[in-house]
Inverse folding.
């Protein structure tokens, strides 16, 4: 396993929310991260679709980890902001979020991510995110 | 209880994700909704702050329900998109999201929401959202 | 010239701001529109870069016209909202915005667009937009 | 005139686009800036409303200058990203954008701004922005 993947997997494992959502880190490549959640009723909104907040959560993590995957070793990342468009109801057996780096800077990295509903072998685009991530010294994340 | 509050409370009770996050619907007034989650490690990101996705989830629901609270009786709402700025680490005993209607239209309602971290009697602004919500016939939400 | 291109070109010609910015409609294909502005000092911000608002203007028009290019003949479009990330200073001889349809719906179309600074034969990505566009009856745009 | 206002007015005077749009810097207070444009056909979109890009331009500048007004003396600002919701057609005699600081940080300042259409003595809310602005050493803005 490459260093960048190790760093991402170690961080992902510390995200309690990803466990709560049932999320799995499917793949980590430099600048590209995929996260998956199976459908579960505990993630629903009022129409039994998966809640936009759950989809936004895996999109946000996929963006943050795409940024982290290309950051220097001693750097950690924090989300500054993100925007998500919900394109279709989140209905399916599972949902994947694929984050990629749009531009990596010294201070700021901008990522884009798409989310898909999976039914059998088919994928349908259901959401898209544009996110701004800040680089921070790994030791310096203040509470 | 007013009709608009009944409708919002009934819909909120159907959101599995709100139960999963431990969220409570604190108050519903016409055009203004407050949702609260206590801190829990199951909501964390890698620095033990609450994950941006959990904060976005209650902000999104507070916006959606603020929109629903002023919508006609036979109308349901769906989030079209939202944007959230994370202003400070989500560290606290609890977190509240307060959504308000910025402009209610026939088809589209735009809401703004702020999230605060609560420690004892103090509140600190930690995030802010701007969201676009679509009105739909209550019977016509398609899968 | 195809119908969709005619409709877009006729609408573009009515946008006073595009003339003011010196903008040219480079190409129109179904779901993809390119707009170009040459550099001019009248578009600057305080560091002599082109102002984010000028770049946002051509990105917004490229998204709106990408949406219009795939809309039914009797439909017009209005921007509901957009979000733009400025990725690098807008420095160059000219700037192009390329808008594409991400998802076309009956009521709402979501588009993405990238802007590039052009210097000689080189292009550099300087901004990216995600936009929400509403379909309206062409006869029904109210003041 | 206070130092913060001097700095903002000097920077505003250098923005070629503000002159092109006919924009005037109405007021500068610490953390709050107002910019105004009169209606002019040169700012229009296809329905003779003012183009969303022109409104976004004065909103963006009002946010940037609100951030600058509270920044240390040796700091300059650059827009990282902004999101704007268009709430009503931009129809009126003039348009004002009022930007305020939501949270000022050492590296990042987040601002919100509203735009209003003015007709006689009446104002109507037509757009709202949420913007992320980066602090930079005034000497270090690189091309």
């Amino acid at each position: 396993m490459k260093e960048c993947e190790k760093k991402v997997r170690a961080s992902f494992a510390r995200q309690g929310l990803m466990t709560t959502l049932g999320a799995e880190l499917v793949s980590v490549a430099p600048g590209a991260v995929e996260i998956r959640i199976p459908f579960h009723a505990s993630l629903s909104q009022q129409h039994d679709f998966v809640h936009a907040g759950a989809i936004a959560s895996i999109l946000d993590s996929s963006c943050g980890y795409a940024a982290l995957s290309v950051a220097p070793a001693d750097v950690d990342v924090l989300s500054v902001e993100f925007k998500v468009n919900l394109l279709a109801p989140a209905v399916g057996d599972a949902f994947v979020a694929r984050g990629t780096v749009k531009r990596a800077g010294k201070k700021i990295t901008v990522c884009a991510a798409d989310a898909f509903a999976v039914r059998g072998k088919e994928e349908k685009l259901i959401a898209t995110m544009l996110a701004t991530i800040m680089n921070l010294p790994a030791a310096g994340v203040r509470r």
User: Anything to note?
Assistant: The mean pLDDT of chain D is 95. Chain D touches chain C at residues 11-12, 14-20, 40-54, 56-58, 60-61, 76, 78-86, 89, 91, 141-143 (CB under 8 Å). Residues 42 and 104 of chain D are 35 Å apart (CA to CA). The helical segments of chain D are 3-13, 16-21, 52-69.
